[in-house]
Amino acid sequence: MKSRLPRASRNYVEQLRQELSHLTSAERNKVIEQTRAKIQKLPGRGRKQVELIEQLGTPGMRAAKFQRTEPEALQVRSGKEFLNRILGWPILAFALLTTVVVYFGPIAAPGNSGEWTPFAGADGALARFEAVVGAQVIWVAMLPVLLSVLGLYLQNIFSTIIGVLGASAITLVVIAGSAGIGLFFLPITVLLWAQVLTPLIMMRGSMARPGPLWLIAGALLVLATGVWVVSAGLRATELNGWLIIGPASLLGLLAVLLPTRQWWAHVLLVSVGILVIAAGLVAAMNSIGALALIGPWVFGGVAFAVGHLALAGSLWHERARKLLALY
């Protein structure tokens, strides 16, 4: 019969069957059928043992590819540490940048804190908050740095509790100082909440990744921030409107692409967000202070935060696939 394999191939298959004793009967039969199909495609259908070993390896080597991996060997903890690192280091870097900008930037200069007011109803209470903080803003700005370091190096219930309390405190700073200084902490607030919550959400399953609703929510956050910042910026500045609308439109387009799960869209959202921040810093150094900086900082920072979280989720998903050898 033509379907009957040569003696050398039959011996190879029988040895392989013995080597696969650790698999169930169904799994073993599936591997044998796959091996038979490969042998059928070989020149001479494996008449010589040397040719079989050259093409397929020894029966023991081939069986080793199908060794069952116990859950403990997947090193889920190392996967969690990987997720924590890809989240933590960019968050720490952004926290340090926030500290430098808030302390040394134009917002610290007298008279600049109230020039950019996105809330029409902003009153003296917000200004008094900024006056109370005053030069002590460095201690407020250092808190996100300490929280990001804590989340990066400690991964236990204590760090989670401290992270939630710290993120809540920075959220109050954003709300109380929303007429000026508090806005500088809006992007890092998003990142701090993400540093606490993302590992808990992503580790609920080994193949977890940001779902459509999370990505849509992130896109809406970027779009809402853009509308808010652009409308306030056009009211407050005499700059050419296209200098505000152009970058905002690009970030908005990339935000719309966020739910498509295209890694290049996530990378571009992060990159353009950083460029918008950089442009705001350059403008603030050369001209009118906080008025030129707050808008780009808030919009670019939120875009960076959302894009970074989407990218980190995708990287974790790929890491999980490799741990589980699912391709």
Give a written overview of the molecule.
This protein has 327 residues and is mostly helical. The protein has helices at 7-19, 25-41, 49-56, 59-64, 76-104, 124-133, 137-153, 157-176, 186-202, 212-236, 242-256, 263-286, 290-324. It is elongated and about 85 Å long. The two termini are 36 Å apart.
How do the helices and strands line up, and which of them pair or pack?
Layout: H1 7-19, H2 25-41, H3 49-56, H4 59-64, H5 76-104, H6 124-133, H7 137-153, H8 157-176, H9 186-202, H10 212-236, H11 242-256, H12 263-286, H13 290-324
Series of secondary-structure elements, N-terminal to C-terminal = HHHHHHHHHHHHH
Task: Name the average pLDDT.
Answer: 76
State the helix count: 13
Span of the ends, CA to CA: 36 Å
Total number of strands = 0
Give helix % range.
over 70%
Radius of gyration: 28 Å
Main β sheet profile: none
Structural class: mainly alpha
What is the 3D form?
elongated
Strand percentage lies at under 5%
Provide the low-confidence segments as ranges: 70-76, 107-124, 287-291
What's the quick description here?
This protein is an all-alpha fold and 327 residues long. Helix content is 72%, strand content 0%. The chain is elongated and about 85 Å long.
Key terms for this structure?
327 residues, 0% strand, mainly alpha
